[in-house]
Amino acid sequence: MINKKNLWFLTLTSIILVLAIYYVTMPLGNDNMVLNSNNNNNTEKEVMVNIEESEALTAARIEKQEQDLNEVKKLQEILLSEDKTIDEKNDAYEQIKYLNASKSIEEKLEKDINSGFELTSFVSIKNNTIKVTVANKEDSLDLANKIITLVNKETNNDYYVTVKFE
């Protein structure tokens, strides 16, 4: 049986997950603006720079978020159901914890890859496999090896890593 403390924990965790997804998918806003100064006239011009992710990465990211949200909803229904056993509820709770931990690892790895290699990437964890999709036209074996090394270092070689270039 779920007590009030566990219910509050699950509610707050769900809210945090929804807010995290919201802020990740939020448009960049004014961060795209670059000031360009002309030394001859000493005037400032605003130049709008469009930084767009690969459409494939955006589609994959949205699909993964929808899958995660649907999975969390199903698991929360199990947790709140009165006709489920304690073992089923415990399994559902553990799966929610695993999903949250996986999401955290995905976000950290994406941030590390994007900043370390100055690339746009998407990281997905499923079972014991980490799939890294990189928005780069040229397939570089050296770059793929560096990304795999970084991921293995961050995850202590706990996952099988694949890198795909798009």
Beginning-to-end CA distance, first to last residue = 47 Å
Number of structural units classed as domains: 1
Please tell me the CATH architecture by its name.
Answer: Orthogonal Bundle
| CATH uppermost class | Mainly Alpha
Helical run tally: 4
Report on the biggest sheet: 3 strands, mixed
Helical proportion, percent range? 55-70%
What strand order characterises the main sheet?
A: 3-4-5
The number of strands is: 5
Mean pLDDT across the residues is: 82
Note the run of SSEs as H and E.
HEEHHEEHE
Low-confidence stretches: 30-44
- The CATH H-level superfamily is Stage III sporulation protein AH-like
Spatial extent as radius of gyration:
20 Å
Structural class: alpha+beta
The fold-level CATH name is Helix Hairpins
User: What sort of overall outline do the alpha carbons produce when their principal axes are compared?
Assistant: elongated
How large a portion of the residues is in β-strands, by DSSP E? 15-25%
